[in-house]
Amino acid sequence: MKNKTANFVLKGATTLTIAALVGKILSAIYRVPFQNLVGNRGFYIYQQIYPIYGIAMTIGLTGFPVYISKIIAKEKSDTRKKQQAASLLKILFLFGILIFAVLYLGAAKIAQLMGDNKLDELIRCVSWLYLLVPLLSVARGYNQGMQEMMPTAFSQLVEQVVRICIIIAAALFGIAHGWSLYRIGSYAFLGSIVGAICALAFFTSFFEELLKFRHKESLTVIIDVLKGILSEGLIICLFAGILVLLQLVDSFTLKKALQTAGYSMQNAENLKGVYDRSQTFLQLGLVISTSFSTSLLPMLIKNQVEKDKIKFEQNIQLIYRICIWMSMSVTVGLIILMPSLNKALFSSEQGSTAISISMLTIIFAGIILLDNSILQSTNNYKKNIIVLASIILVKFLTSYQFTLHLGLVGASLSSVLSMAIGTFLSGTSLKKMGLSRKLNKRFMIRVIGCSIIMTVAVFFILNLLNLTNLLGNSRVDSFIQCIIGVLIGAIFYVGATRYGNLFSEQEWRNIPGGEYILKIFRKRMDN
Description:
Helices cover about 85% and strands about 0% of the residues. It contains 23 helices and no strands.
């Protein structure tokens, strides 16, 4: 019975993980055609408001649904489950109304603080989303708590596809008909509203049942629910959107700092648009670097259900090693190829240095998110509140000053510094709970060695192509360089890992795709 329950939980968690990864990849990729259509300034306008949307989606996709599912799963009777869902919906809807009112009525002031009064209409457009987020959060959380993962998975994918289609359509139609970039931005964010409504269609039966359900909450129950939302629920949401929070700080500081440094308003907006290209690489890089490690997180849930402490600790160690291994390869790879990637995707190499520096955030973000997942799986989420506060505080205190003196490079360094400090503090939180990342020096040295081998190989091949004039300087040539670089880098990095004995035979088999790597790079390894 225990194994059956564990396998059921494992299957459901895996389904959600896959859906979330696909959704994140789509969310990263659409920025490329959108930026190519609206240019740097149009991209700046969209990205200034994106963090407000991003926070809403974090709440509705991965934040509160995770918290709500835990509450629903703990209840034994269907009546109590519905009571909890009804109470959560009422409280979250009140919060949604409050946030909507602040954003809608304060749009002009928020736009002014961002340094661009014309952003007020975009803020008002996004504000409507906060009226739908409570509905999505509770519906997804309830279904996940009932071990019904498919409605959540499908709703996530449909929401992203609808939103992206409307964004690209708005850009195409707007450019063709001479719309202002601000109007295009408003219609682009309208896509998030339509996408959320389409996602709600997957939960019509849930809402029909909830509307028929009648009960009276006691004050004690309401207070308990409220405490949970403001503590565990809020922490889960904020950690899930940590990179979005860093973007939010940039929205209020970066453009102003550039103007203070002497740039005209138009140049500052263009530079902010260039800097925002990094979000595409960061999001895609983080998805790739964490996909292998997060795919093993359901195993921790299974270990918890089966109360297998030994396997739990073994899997934690493996997950961290995979996270570091993948994060290092993705980060170094993006840095090496950044000039070519930047030109291939965004038509110029402008800002490549600053964007390359910001890629270091991937390593730290991957570790922090993994730390938080481990603490959540052991119900020790409160330990990381200091980590979260420190990250935001450091970013807020350094972003303006660093950008003022160092330009876009300073903005990148501010993000990297805040995440590096957060990684250190997060590790301290783990130790206090008797947990550890268990990353020995031998492993770290070998990972660095594999990265150096990959770097040398890619540089050698790309320089050889340039010296022989086999490729030119067009965007197509840059794209070909990227493909060649990725293939060469992957072969040398995985080959160096295999022959460097970073993972045992059994560990390779636990890594997605590891069986194929074992077949390709045949070599007996010591367990």
